[in-house]
Amino acid sequence: MAQALATLREKFKEQEKEIAALREKVAQLEMSKTPAPRPDVKVTPPTSLTAKSSLSNEDIMRYSRQLLLPEFGVKGQINLSKTSVLVVGCGGLGCPLAQYLAAAGVGRLGLIDYDEVELNNLHRQVLHREENQGQAKALSAASAIKSLNSTVQCCPYQLQLSPENALDLIQQYDIVADCSDNVPTRYLVNDACVLSGKPLVSASALRMEGQLTIYNYKGGPCYRCLYPAPPPPDTVTNCSDGGVLGVVPGIMGCLQALEVFKIASGQGSSLHQQLMMFDAQDARFRSIKLRPRQSDCAVCGQNPSVTKLVDYESFCGSAATDKCRKLNLLSRDQRITVQAYKLMLDKAEPHLLLDVRPLVEVDICSLPFSLNIPLSQLEAKNSDDIHLLRERISHLKHQIAGISQPPVFVICKLGNDSQKAVNILEQMSGLQVDSIIVKDICGGLMAWANIVDPSFPQY
Amino acid sequence: MAAPLSLHLEFGGGAELLFNSEKKHQVSLPGQAGPWDIRQLLVWIQQNLLKERPELFIQGDTVRPGILVLINDADWELMGQLDYQLQDGDTVVFISTLHGG
Ligand SMILES: [Zn+2]
Protein backbone atom coordinates (compact mmCIF):
# COMPACT_ATOMS: atom_id res chain seq x y z
CA MET A 1 0.00 0.00 0.00
CA ALA A 2 2.67 2.42 1.11
CA GLN A 3 4.74 1.29 -1.82
CA ALA A 4 1.87 2.02 -4.29
CA LEU A 5 1.27 5.42 -2.73
CA ALA A 6 4.95 6.33 -3.06
CA THR A 7 4.96 5.24 -6.72
CA LEU A 8 1.84 7.29 -7.42
CA ARG A 9 3.33 10.32 -5.68
CA GLU A 10 6.48 9.94 -7.73
CA LYS A 11 4.43 9.73 -10.93
CA PHE A 12 2.39 12.76 -9.88
CA LYS A 13 5.57 14.77 -9.34
CA GLU A 14 6.88 13.78 -12.75
CA GLN A 15 3.62 14.81 -14.41
CA GLU A 16 3.73 18.11 -12.59
CA LYS A 17 7.23 18.74 -13.90
CA GLU A 18 6.09 17.91 -17.41
CA ILE A 19 3.15 20.30 -17.16
CA ALA A 20 5.43 23.07 -15.91
CA ALA A 21 7.77 22.50 -18.85
CA LEU A 22 4.87 22.56 -21.29
CA ARG A 23 3.54 25.75 -19.72
CA GLU A 24 6.90 27.42 -20.19
CA LYS A 25 7.07 26.29 -23.79
CA VAL A 26 3.61 27.72 -24.49
CA ALA A 27 4.61 31.00 -22.87
CA GLN A 28 7.77 31.14 -24.93
CA LEU A 29 5.91 30.50 -28.16
CA GLU A 30 3.32 33.09 -27.28
CA MET A 31 6.06 35.64 -26.63
CA SER A 32 7.71 35.03 -29.97
CA LYS A 33 4.66 34.74 -32.19
CA THR A 34 4.37 37.61 -34.60
CA PRO A 35 0.97 38.78 -35.75
CA ALA A 36 2.46 40.69 -38.71
CA PRO A 37 3.19 39.14 -42.09
CA ARG A 38 6.59 37.64 -42.80
CA PRO A 39 9.07 40.30 -43.82
CA ASP A 40 10.21 40.40 -47.39
CA VAL A 41 13.77 39.26 -47.15
CA LYS A 42 14.24 39.34 -50.86
CA VAL A 43 12.51 42.13 -52.61
CA THR A 44 9.40 40.89 -54.38
CA PRO A 45 7.17 43.37 -56.19
CA PRO A 46 3.93 43.88 -54.28
CA THR A 47 0.62 43.64 -56.10
CA SER A 48 -0.18 46.84 -57.91
CA LEU A 49 -2.56 49.35 -56.38
CA THR A 50 -5.97 49.28 -57.98
CA ALA A 51 -7.03 52.74 -58.99
CA LYS A 52 -10.33 53.59 -57.36
CA SER A 53 -12.65 55.82 -59.34
CA SER A 54 -14.92 56.58 -56.41
CA LEU A 55 -15.00 56.22 -52.64
CA SER A 56 -16.99 53.52 -50.82
CA ASN A 57 -19.44 54.47 -48.07
CA GLU A 58 -16.94 53.21 -45.53
CA ASP A 59 -14.17 55.36 -47.07
CA ILE A 60 -16.45 58.39 -46.90
CA MET A 61 -17.22 57.71 -43.25
CA ARG A 62 -13.60 57.09 -42.30
CA TYR A 63 -12.09 60.06 -44.14
CA SER A 64 -15.02 62.51 -43.91
CA ARG A 65 -13.14 65.11 -41.87
CA GLN A 66 -10.40 65.47 -44.48
CA LEU A 67 -12.80 65.10 -47.42
CA LEU A 68 -14.43 68.31 -46.23
CA LEU A 69 -11.24 70.26 -46.95
CA PRO A 70 -11.50 72.01 -50.32
CA GLU A 71 -7.68 71.70 -50.70
CA PHE A 72 -7.98 67.92 -50.49
CA GLY A 73 -11.48 66.62 -51.20
CA VAL A 74 -12.52 63.39 -52.94
CA LYS A 75 -9.91 63.84 -55.66
CA GLY A 76 -7.12 64.18 -53.10
CA GLN A 77 -8.35 61.10 -51.24
CA ILE A 78 -8.47 59.02 -54.41
CA ASN A 79 -4.98 60.23 -55.40
CA LEU A 80 -3.68 59.34 -51.95
CA SER A 81 -5.15 55.85 -52.16
CA LYS A 82 -3.24 55.30 -55.41
CA THR A 83 0.09 56.41 -53.93
CA SER A 84 2.81 54.19 -52.52
CA VAL A 85 5.36 55.54 -50.08
CA LEU A 86 8.62 53.89 -49.08
CA VAL A 87 9.62 54.66 -45.49
CA VAL A 88 13.36 54.20 -44.94
CA GLY A 89 13.74 53.64 -41.21
CA CYS A 90 10.98 52.83 -38.70
CA GLY A 91 12.40 54.92 -35.86
CA GLY A 92 11.63 58.31 -34.36
CA LEU A 93 10.72 59.87 -37.73
CA GLY A 94 9.35 56.82 -39.54
CA CYS A 95 6.86 55.91 -36.80
CA PRO A 96 4.82 59.13 -36.76
CA LEU A 97 5.16 59.48 -40.54
CA ALA A 98 3.83 55.97 -41.23
CA GLN A 99 1.14 56.40 -38.60
CA TYR A 100 -0.34 59.58 -40.10
CA LEU A 101 -0.03 58.42 -43.70
CA ALA A 102 -1.78 55.15 -42.85
CA ALA A 103 -4.47 56.93 -40.87
CA ALA A 104 -5.10 59.28 -43.80
CA GLY A 105 -5.51 56.36 -46.22
CA VAL A 106 -2.32 56.14 -48.25
CA GLY A 107 -2.40 53.26 -50.74
CA ARG A 108 0.74 51.38 -49.82
CA LEU A 109 3.46 51.77 -47.24
CA GLY A 110 6.82 50.04 -47.55
CA LEU A 111 8.50 49.88 -44.15
CA ILE A 112 12.26 49.26 -44.12
CA ASP A 113 14.30 48.66 -40.99
CA TYR A 114 17.07 46.17 -40.24
CA ASP A 115 16.95 46.81 -36.50
CA GLU A 116 15.00 45.37 -33.57
CA VAL A 117 12.88 47.18 -31.00
CA GLU A 118 14.77 48.10 -27.82
CA LEU A 119 13.50 49.64 -24.60
CA ASN A 120 15.46 52.86 -25.27
CA ASN A 121 13.54 53.32 -28.57
CA LEU A 122 10.11 53.60 -27.01
CA HIS A 123 10.35 57.25 -25.88
CA ARG A 124 10.25 58.38 -29.51
CA GLN A 125 9.42 55.44 -31.79
CA VAL A 126 5.76 55.56 -30.96
CA LEU A 127 4.44 52.67 -33.09
CA HIS A 128 6.39 50.08 -31.10
CA ARG A 129 5.02 48.55 -27.91
CA GLU A 130 6.70 47.22 -24.77
CA GLU A 131 5.75 43.68 -25.71
CA ASN A 132 7.49 44.06 -29.12
CA GLN A 133 10.96 44.45 -27.64
CA GLY A 134 13.35 42.19 -29.54
CA GLN A 135 11.01 42.03 -32.54
CA ALA A 136 12.00 43.43 -35.92
CA LYS A 137 11.03 47.12 -36.11
CA ALA A 138 9.64 46.67 -39.64
CA LEU A 139 7.24 43.97 -38.35
CA SER A 140 6.34 45.80 -35.18
CA ALA A 141 5.53 48.95 -37.18
CA ALA A 142 3.56 46.94 -39.76
CA SER A 143 1.40 45.29 -37.12
CA ALA A 144 0.64 48.66 -35.51
CA ILE A 145 -0.26 50.11 -38.94
CA LYS A 146 -2.48 47.12 -39.75
CA SER A 147 -4.53 47.60 -36.61
CA LEU A 148 -4.85 51.32 -37.32
CA ASN A 149 -6.01 51.02 -40.94
CA SER A 150 -6.40 47.54 -42.42
CA THR A 151 -7.16 48.95 -45.88
CA VAL A 152 -3.57 50.19 -46.27
CA GLN A 153 -1.24 47.76 -48.08
CA CYS A 154 1.70 47.32 -45.78
CA CYS A 155 5.03 45.79 -46.87
CA PRO A 156 7.56 45.30 -44.08
CA TYR A 157 11.17 44.80 -45.20
CA GLN A 158 13.41 43.56 -42.45
CA LEU A 159 16.65 44.45 -44.18
CA GLN A 160 19.39 47.00 -44.45
CA LEU A 161 18.86 49.23 -47.49
CA SER A 162 21.96 48.61 -49.62
CA PRO A 163 23.39 49.49 -53.04
CA GLU A 164 22.24 45.99 -54.12
CA ASN A 165 18.55 46.29 -53.19
CA ALA A 166 17.86 50.04 -53.12
CA LEU A 167 16.93 50.55 -56.78
CA ASP A 168 14.68 47.48 -56.92
CA LEU A 169 12.83 48.69 -53.87
CA ILE A 170 12.58 52.37 -54.71
CA GLN A 171 11.36 51.71 -58.25
CA GLN A 172 8.24 50.12 -56.77
CA TYR A 173 7.22 53.28 -54.93
CA ASP A 174 6.04 56.76 -55.90
CA ILE A 175 7.53 58.78 -53.05
CA VAL A 176 10.44 58.03 -50.72
CA ALA A 177 10.64 59.28 -47.13
CA ASP A 178 14.14 59.27 -45.67
CA CYS A 179 13.72 58.58 -41.96
CA SER A 180 17.15 57.00 -41.57
CA ASP A 181 19.70 57.69 -38.90
CA ASN A 182 23.10 57.69 -40.57
CA VAL A 183 25.12 59.45 -43.26
CA PRO A 184 25.84 56.56 -45.69
CA THR A 185 22.13 55.69 -45.91
CA ARG A 186 21.26 59.33 -46.62
CA TYR A 187 23.63 59.41 -49.62
CA LEU A 188 22.41 55.98 -50.77
CA VAL A 189 18.74 56.97 -50.62
CA ASN A 190 19.50 60.23 -52.42
CA ASP A 191 21.39 58.62 -55.27
CA ALA A 192 18.80 55.87 -55.67
CA CYS A 193 16.02 58.49 -55.83
CA VAL A 194 17.90 60.56 -58.41
CA LEU A 195 18.66 57.48 -60.52
CA SER A 196 15.03 56.35 -60.42
CA GLY A 197 13.49 59.83 -60.61
CA LYS A 198 11.56 59.76 -57.33
CA PRO A 199 10.91 62.71 -55.03
CA LEU A 200 12.66 62.33 -51.69
CA VAL A 201 11.15 63.87 -48.57
CA SER A 202 13.95 63.93 -46.05
CA ALA A 203 13.81 64.72 -42.35
CA SER A 204 16.34 64.46 -39.54
CA ALA A 205 16.43 65.18 -35.84
CA LEU A 206 18.96 65.32 -33.05
CA ARG A 207 18.92 66.64 -29.50
CA MET A 208 16.43 69.55 -29.67
CA GLU A 209 16.61 70.32 -33.40
CA GLY A 210 15.15 69.08 -36.64
CA GLN A 211 15.57 69.68 -40.37
CA LEU A 212 13.25 68.95 -43.30
CA THR A 213 13.76 69.25 -47.07
CA ILE A 214 12.50 67.74 -50.28
CA TYR A 215 15.16 66.61 -52.71
CA ASN A 216 15.07 65.80 -56.40
CA TYR A 217 11.80 67.62 -56.86
CA LYS A 218 10.82 70.14 -59.57
CA GLY A 219 14.33 71.33 -60.43
CA GLY A 220 15.36 71.67 -56.81
CA PRO A 221 18.61 70.32 -55.44
CA CYS A 222 19.44 66.77 -54.43
CA TYR A 223 21.25 65.89 -51.20
CA ARG A 224 24.57 65.88 -53.04
CA CYS A 225 23.94 69.32 -54.55
CA LEU A 226 23.83 70.59 -50.98
CA TYR A 227 26.47 68.30 -49.52
CA PRO A 228 28.88 67.22 -52.29
CA ALA A 229 31.33 65.80 -49.72
CA PRO A 230 30.35 63.77 -46.66
CA PRO A 231 31.13 65.21 -43.23
CA PRO A 232 34.28 63.92 -41.49
CA PRO A 233 33.10 60.86 -39.48
CA ASP A 234 34.17 62.29 -36.12
CA THR A 235 31.94 65.35 -36.62
CA VAL A 236 28.81 63.20 -36.89
CA THR A 237 26.74 62.80 -33.74
CA ASN A 238 24.01 60.16 -33.55
CA CYS A 239 21.03 59.88 -31.24
CA SER A 240 22.68 57.24 -29.06
CA ASP A 241 25.58 59.64 -28.40
CA GLY A 242 23.97 63.06 -28.49
CA GLY A 243 20.51 62.19 -27.26
CA VAL A 244 17.20 63.34 -28.68
CA LEU A 245 13.95 64.53 -27.14
CA GLY A 246 11.25 62.16 -28.45
CA VAL A 247 8.78 64.83 -29.46
CA VAL A 248 11.36 66.48 -31.77
CA PRO A 249 11.54 63.62 -34.32
CA GLY A 250 7.79 63.32 -33.66
CA ILE A 251 7.25 66.88 -34.92
CA MET A 252 9.66 66.43 -37.83
CA GLY A 253 8.09 63.08 -38.85
CA CYS A 254 4.65 64.69 -38.82
CA LEU A 255 5.85 67.60 -41.00
CA GLN A 256 7.48 65.08 -43.30
CA ALA A 257 4.17 63.17 -43.52
CA LEU A 258 2.45 66.46 -44.36
CA GLU A 259 4.72 67.09 -47.35
CA VAL A 260 4.33 63.49 -48.55
CA PHE A 261 0.58 63.92 -48.16
CA LYS A 262 0.59 67.09 -50.26
CA ILE A 263 2.60 65.49 -53.05
CA ALA A 264 0.45 62.35 -52.99
CA SER A 265 -2.84 64.18 -53.08
CA GLY A 266 -1.69 66.33 -55.98
CA GLN A 267 -1.18 69.70 -54.29
CA GLY A 268 2.59 69.48 -54.43
CA SER A 269 5.14 70.14 -51.72
CA SER A 270 5.68 73.64 -50.35
CA LEU A 271 9.28 72.85 -49.52
CA HIS A 272 10.52 72.97 -53.09
CA GLN A 273 14.07 74.34 -52.92
CA GLN A 274 13.61 75.07 -49.26
CA LEU A 275 15.00 73.83 -45.98
CA MET A 276 12.87 74.03 -42.87
CA MET A 277 14.68 74.04 -39.56
CA PHE A 278 13.08 73.59 -36.16
CA ASP A 279 14.62 74.64 -32.88
CA ALA A 280 12.65 73.05 -30.04
CA GLN A 281 14.48 75.02 -27.37
CA ASP A 282 13.29 78.34 -28.80
CA ALA A 283 10.05 76.91 -30.25
CA ARG A 284 11.07 78.44 -33.56
CA PHE A 285 10.86 77.42 -37.21
CA ARG A 286 13.05 78.92 -39.87
CA SER A 287 12.69 78.44 -43.63
CA ILE A 288 15.68 78.86 -45.87
CA LYS A 289 15.80 79.35 -49.61
CA LEU A 290 18.15 76.74 -51.03
CA ARG A 291 20.28 76.63 -54.17
CA PRO A 292 18.66 75.06 -57.25
CA ARG A 293 19.90 71.80 -58.80
CA GLN A 294 23.66 72.17 -59.33
CA SER A 295 24.90 71.57 -62.84
CA ASP A 296 28.16 70.15 -61.47
CA CYS A 297 26.45 67.76 -59.04
CA ALA A 298 28.04 64.29 -59.04
CA VAL A 299 24.70 62.52 -59.41
CA CYS A 300 22.05 64.94 -60.72
CA GLY A 301 24.32 67.32 -62.65
CA GLN A 302 24.97 67.58 -66.36
CA ASN A 303 27.89 65.14 -66.45
CA PRO A 304 27.25 62.89 -63.48
CA SER A 305 30.13 60.75 -62.24
CA VAL A 306 27.77 58.65 -60.14
CA THR A 307 25.67 56.70 -62.65
CA LYS A 308 25.06 53.66 -60.49
CA LEU A 309 24.97 53.06 -56.77
CA VAL A 310 28.38 52.91 -55.09
CA ASP A 311 29.82 51.79 -51.76
CA TYR A 312 28.44 54.46 -49.41
CA GLU A 313 30.10 53.20 -46.25
CA SER A 314 33.55 53.70 -47.75
CA PHE A 315 32.50 57.00 -49.40
CA CYS A 316 31.48 58.31 -45.96
CA GLY A 317 34.11 56.47 -43.93
CA SER A 318 31.46 55.25 -41.50
CA ALA A 319 29.03 52.37 -41.09
CA ALA A 320 25.39 52.57 -42.19
CA THR A 321 24.02 52.31 -38.66
CA ASP A 322 23.62 54.71 -35.78
CA LYS A 323 25.44 52.32 -33.47
CA CYS A 324 28.55 53.73 -31.89
CA ARG A 325 31.88 53.31 -33.58
CA LYS A 326 34.63 51.51 -31.70
CA LEU A 327 37.91 53.38 -31.70
CA ASN A 328 41.22 51.61 -31.33
CA LEU A 329 43.76 54.25 -30.37
CA LEU A 330 45.87 52.39 -27.82
CA SER A 331 48.14 49.37 -27.59
CA ARG A 332 47.06 46.31 -25.64
CA ASP A 333 49.20 47.11 -22.59
CA GLN A 334 47.50 50.52 -22.30
CA ARG A 335 44.13 48.88 -21.72
CA ILE A 336 42.60 46.54 -19.19
CA THR A 337 39.33 44.62 -19.25
CA VAL A 338 36.48 45.31 -16.86
CA GLN A 339 37.08 41.88 -15.31
CA ALA A 340 40.72 42.69 -14.57
CA TYR A 341 39.67 46.03 -13.11
CA LYS A 342 37.12 44.26 -10.89
CA LEU A 343 39.83 41.90 -9.58
CA MET A 344 41.96 44.92 -8.75
CA LEU A 345 39.08 46.52 -6.88
CA ASP A 346 38.47 43.32 -4.94
CA LYS A 347 42.11 43.36 -3.83
CA ALA A 348 41.65 47.01 -2.80
CA GLU A 349 44.70 48.09 -4.75
CA PRO A 350 45.11 51.87 -4.47
CA HIS A 351 44.50 53.70 -7.73
CA LEU A 352 42.61 56.61 -9.21
CA LEU A 353 39.53 56.00 -11.38
CA LEU A 354 38.92 58.92 -13.73
CA ASP A 355 35.49 59.14 -15.41
CA VAL A 356 35.74 61.39 -18.49
CA ARG A 357 32.04 61.50 -19.46
CA PRO A 358 30.12 64.80 -19.65
CA LEU A 359 28.36 65.81 -16.43
CA VAL A 360 24.90 65.09 -17.84
CA GLU A 361 25.87 61.42 -18.22
CA VAL A 362 27.53 61.25 -14.80
CA ASP A 363 24.21 62.45 -13.38
CA ILE A 364 22.56 59.36 -14.89
CA CYS A 365 24.92 56.91 -13.21
CA SER A 366 28.53 56.57 -12.11
CA LEU A 367 30.85 54.44 -10.01
CA PRO A 368 30.83 56.08 -6.56
CA PHE A 369 34.61 56.21 -6.11
CA SER A 370 35.38 57.79 -9.50
CA LEU A 371 36.65 61.31 -10.12
CA ASN A 372 34.80 63.07 -12.96
CA ILE A 373 36.64 65.33 -15.36
CA PRO A 374 34.94 65.50 -18.77
CA LEU A 375 37.12 64.81 -21.80
CA SER A 376 36.36 68.26 -23.22
CA GLN A 377 37.84 69.86 -20.09
CA LEU A 378 40.93 67.66 -20.26
CA GLU A 379 41.34 68.61 -23.92
CA ALA A 380 40.99 72.30 -23.07
CA LYS A 381 43.52 71.84 -20.21
CA ASN A 382 41.06 73.54 -17.87
CA SER A 383 43.22 74.84 -15.01
CA ASP A 384 40.81 74.01 -12.14
CA ASP A 385 40.53 70.45 -13.37
CA ILE A 386 44.28 70.05 -13.86
CA HIS A 387 44.77 71.35 -10.32
CA LEU A 388 42.26 68.84 -8.93
CA LEU A 389 43.86 66.01 -10.87
CA ARG A 390 47.34 66.96 -9.70
CA GLU A 391 46.16 66.96 -6.06
CA ARG A 392 44.44 63.60 -6.33
CA ILE A 393 47.48 62.02 -7.97
CA SER A 394 49.93 63.40 -5.45
CA HIS A 395 47.63 62.23 -2.63
CA LEU A 396 47.60 58.77 -4.18
CA LYS A 397 51.38 58.83 -4.46
CA HIS A 398 51.73 59.48 -0.71
CA GLN A 399 49.28 56.67 -0.03
CA ILE A 400 51.39 54.14 -1.88
CA ALA A 401 54.89 55.25 -1.01
CA GLY A 402 57.36 53.02 -2.78
CA ILE A 403 55.53 52.86 -6.10
CA SER A 404 57.04 55.54 -8.29
CA GLN A 405 54.18 55.78 -10.78
CA PRO A 406 50.68 55.62 -9.29
CA PRO A 407 48.10 53.89 -11.50
CA VAL A 408 45.28 55.91 -13.07
CA PHE A 409 42.40 54.13 -14.82
CA VAL A 410 40.19 55.99 -17.26
CA ILE A 411 36.57 55.09 -17.94
CA CYS A 412 33.73 56.50 -20.08
CA LYS A 413 30.48 55.10 -21.48
CA LEU A 414 31.75 52.79 -24.24
CA GLY A 415 35.53 53.08 -24.17
CA ASN A 416 36.15 55.61 -26.97
CA ASP A 417 36.57 58.90 -25.11
CA SER A 418 38.56 57.13 -22.41
CA GLN A 419 41.19 56.17 -25.00
CA LYS A 420 41.54 59.79 -26.11
CA ALA A 421 41.87 60.77 -22.45
CA VAL A 422 44.63 58.17 -21.90
CA ASN A 423 46.64 59.83 -24.67
CA ILE A 424 46.18 63.27 -23.11
CA LEU A 425 47.08 62.04 -19.63
CA GLU A 426 50.21 60.34 -20.91
CA GLN A 427 51.35 63.65 -22.34
CA MET A 428 50.65 65.32 -18.99
CA SER A 429 52.40 62.60 -16.98
CA GLY A 430 55.59 63.93 -15.34
CA LEU A 431 54.83 67.47 -16.50
CA GLN A 432 51.54 68.96 -15.29
CA VAL A 433 51.00 66.04 -12.90
CA ASP A 434 53.27 63.50 -11.18
CA SER A 435 54.47 60.67 -13.34
CA ILE A 436 51.66 58.10 -13.65
CA ILE A 437 50.75 54.86 -15.39
CA VAL A 438 47.50 55.37 -17.30
CA LYS A 439 45.20 52.65 -18.55
CA ASP A 440 41.92 52.63 -20.39
CA ILE A 441 39.12 50.38 -19.14
CA CYS A 442 37.99 48.57 -22.29
CA GLY A 443 34.35 48.98 -23.25
CA GLY A 444 33.68 51.46 -20.44
CA LEU A 445 30.75 51.46 -18.06
CA MET A 446 28.49 49.62 -20.49
CA ALA A 447 30.93 46.69 -20.48
CA TRP A 448 31.00 46.99 -16.68
CA ALA A 449 27.20 46.73 -16.63
CA ASN A 450 27.16 43.84 -19.10
CA ILE A 451 29.94 41.75 -17.64
CA VAL A 452 30.62 42.70 -14.02
CA ASP A 453 27.59 44.36 -12.47
CA PRO A 454 24.18 43.71 -14.12
CA SER A 455 22.56 46.07 -11.60
CA PHE A 456 24.49 49.02 -13.09
CA PRO A 457 22.17 51.08 -15.36
CA GLN A 458 22.59 50.99 -19.14
CA TYR A 459 21.75 54.01 -21.24
CA MET B 1 38.24 103.08 -44.42
CA ALA B 2 34.93 101.30 -43.86
CA ALA B 3 33.11 101.65 -40.52
CA PRO B 4 32.91 98.71 -38.10
CA LEU B 5 30.31 96.08 -39.00
CA SER B 6 27.71 94.76 -36.63
CA LEU B 7 26.71 91.16 -37.36
CA HIS B 8 24.38 88.62 -35.92
CA LEU B 9 25.98 85.16 -35.98
CA GLU B 10 24.15 81.94 -35.18
CA PHE B 11 25.36 78.38 -34.84
CA GLY B 12 23.07 75.34 -34.84
CA GLY B 13 22.66 71.65 -35.47
CA GLY B 14 25.50 70.96 -33.03
CA ALA B 15 27.95 73.54 -34.46
CA GLU B 16 27.20 75.66 -31.37
CA LEU B 17 29.05 73.07 -29.25
CA LEU B 18 32.29 74.48 -30.65
CA PHE B 19 31.27 77.92 -29.41
CA ASN B 20 30.69 77.25 -25.74
CA SER B 21 27.17 75.96 -26.55
CA GLU B 22 26.10 79.55 -27.31
CA LYS B 23 23.83 79.62 -30.34
CA LYS B 24 23.61 83.38 -30.82
CA HIS B 25 26.50 85.80 -31.00
CA GLN B 26 26.21 89.52 -31.60
CA VAL B 27 29.60 90.60 -32.93
CA SER B 28 31.27 93.71 -34.20
CA LEU B 29 33.95 93.48 -36.88
CA PRO B 30 36.54 96.28 -36.80
CA GLY B 31 36.65 98.81 -39.61
CA GLN B 32 39.08 97.98 -42.40
CA ALA B 33 40.20 99.41 -45.74
CA GLY B 34 37.91 97.30 -47.95
CA PRO B 35 34.59 95.58 -47.30
CA TRP B 36 34.41 92.39 -45.21
CA ASP B 37 33.58 89.17 -47.05
CA ILE B 38 32.64 85.72 -45.74
CA ARG B 39 36.17 84.41 -46.34
CA GLN B 40 37.53 87.04 -43.96
CA LEU B 41 34.68 86.44 -41.53
CA LEU B 42 35.69 82.78 -41.26
CA VAL B 43 39.25 83.80 -40.35
CA TRP B 44 37.90 86.28 -37.81
CA ILE B 45 35.64 83.61 -36.27
CA GLN B 46 38.56 81.21 -36.03
CA GLN B 47 40.71 83.82 -34.28
CA ASN B 48 38.09 85.33 -32.00
CA LEU B 49 35.28 82.89 -31.28
CA LEU B 50 36.57 79.40 -32.00
CA LYS B 51 38.93 78.48 -29.20
CA GLU B 52 39.51 74.75 -29.73
CA ARG B 53 39.37 72.07 -32.39
CA PRO B 54 39.07 74.42 -35.40
CA GLU B 55 39.18 71.38 -37.73
CA LEU B 56 35.62 70.56 -36.66
CA PHE B 57 34.49 73.86 -38.19
CA ILE B 58 36.98 75.07 -40.79
CA GLN B 59 38.72 73.15 -43.54
CA GLY B 60 41.18 75.11 -45.66
CA ASP B 61 39.65 78.55 -46.19
CA THR B 62 36.04 77.37 -46.04
CA VAL B 63 33.69 75.55 -43.67
CA ARG B 64 34.07 71.78 -43.32
CA PRO B 65 31.74 69.49 -45.31
CA GLY B 66 28.38 69.07 -43.59
CA ILE B 67 28.02 72.70 -42.49
CA LEU B 68 25.55 74.84 -44.38
CA VAL B 69 26.03 78.61 -44.38
CA LEU B 70 22.97 80.86 -44.56
CA ILE B 71 23.12 84.57 -45.21
CA ASN B 72 19.96 86.43 -44.23
CA ASP B 73 17.89 83.22 -44.50
CA ALA B 74 19.27 82.18 -47.90
CA ASP B 75 21.72 79.45 -48.84
CA TRP B 76 25.14 81.15 -49.25
CA GLU B 77 25.45 79.44 -52.65
CA LEU B 78 22.80 81.94 -53.87
CA MET B 79 24.75 84.86 -52.40
CA GLY B 80 28.24 84.36 -53.78
CA GLN B 81 29.57 82.01 -51.10
CA LEU B 82 32.97 83.07 -49.72
CA ASP B 83 32.93 86.26 -51.81
CA TYR B 84 29.69 87.66 -50.39
CA GLN B 85 30.32 91.18 -49.10
CA LEU B 86 28.90 91.59 -45.62
CA GLN B 87 26.54 94.46 -44.86
CA ASP B 88 25.95 96.06 -41.47
CA GLY B 89 23.21 94.12 -39.65
CA ASP B 90 23.53 90.90 -41.68
CA THR B 91 22.60 87.58 -40.10
CA VAL B 92 24.94 84.69 -40.87
CA VAL B 93 23.93 81.21 -39.71
CA PHE B 94 26.14 78.12 -39.61
CA ILE B 95 24.13 74.91 -39.45
CA SER B 96 25.57 71.47 -39.04
CA THR B 97 23.42 68.93 -40.89
CA LEU B 98 21.59 66.45 -38.73
CA HIS B 99 21.50 62.77 -39.60
CA GLY B 100 19.60 61.24 -36.72
CA GLY B 101 16.14 59.81 -36.87
ZN1 LIG C 1 22.42 66.92 -57.10
UniProtKB/TrEMBL annotation, chain A:
Instruction: Give me the comment on cofactor binding.
Output: Binds 1 zinc ion per subunit.
Similarity comment: family membership:
In the N-terminal section; belongs to the HesA/MoeB/ThiF family. UBA4 subfamily.
Function comment: Plays a central role in 2-thiolation of mcm(5)S(2)U at tRNA wobble positions of cytosolic tRNA(Lys), tRNA(Glu) and tRNA(Gln). Also essential during biosynthesis of the molybdenum cofactor. Acts by mediating the C-terminal thiocarboxylation of sulfur carriers URM1 and MOCS2A. Its N-terminus first activates URM1 and MOCS2A as acyl-adenylates (-COAMP), then the persulfide sulfur on the catalytic cysteine is transferred to URM1 and MOCS2A to form thiocarboxylation (-COSH) of their C-terminus.
Gene responsible for this protein: MOCS3
What Pfam families does the database record attribute to this sequence?
Rhodanese, ThiF
Biological process (GO), any one: Mo-molybdopterin cofactor biosynthetic process
Q: Which residues form a coiled coil?
A: 5-32
Traced from the root, the source organism's taxonomic lineage reads: Eukaryota, Metazoa, Chordata, Craniata, Vertebrata
Q: What is this protein called?
A: Adenylyltransferase and sulfurtransferase MOCS3
Q: Ranges for the Rhodanese domain? A: 347-457
UniProtKB/TrEMBL annotation, chain B:
Task: Supply the alphabetized keyword list.
Answer: Cytoplasm, Isopeptide bond, tRNA processing, Ubl conjugation pathway
Q: Which organism is it from?
A: Cynoglossus semilaevis (Tongue sole)
Function, in words: Acts as a sulfur carrier required for 2-thiolation of mcm(5)S(2)U at tRNA wobble positions of cytosolic tRNA(Lys), tRNA(Glu) and tRNA(Gln). Serves as sulfur donor in tRNA 2-thiolation reaction by being thiocarboxylated (-COSH) at its C-terminus by MOCS3. The sulfur is then transferred to tRNA to form 2-thiolation of mcm(5)S(2)U. Also acts as a ubiquitin-like protein (UBL) that is covalently conjugated via an isopeptide bond to lysine residues of target proteins.
Crosslink Glycyl lysine isopeptide (Gly-Lys) (interchain with K-? in acceptor proteins): position given as G101
Q: Which residues carry this modification: 1-thioglycine?
A: G101
BP terms from Gene Ontology: protein urmylation; tRNA thio-modification; tRNA wobble uridine modification
Which pathway is this protein engaged in?
tRNA modification; 5-methoxycarbonylmethyl-2-thiouridine-tRNA biosynthesis
Q: Which InterPro entries match?
A: Beta-grasp_dom_sf, Mopterin_synth/thiamin_S_b, Urm1
The known PTMs are summarized as: C-terminal thiocarboxylation occurs in 2 steps, it is first acyl-adenylated (-COAMP) via the hesA/moeB/thiF part of MOCS3, then thiocarboxylated (-COSH) via the rhodanese domain of MOCS3.
Q: Which family does it belong to?
A: Belongs to the URM1 family.
The protein here is known as Ubiquitin-related modifier 1
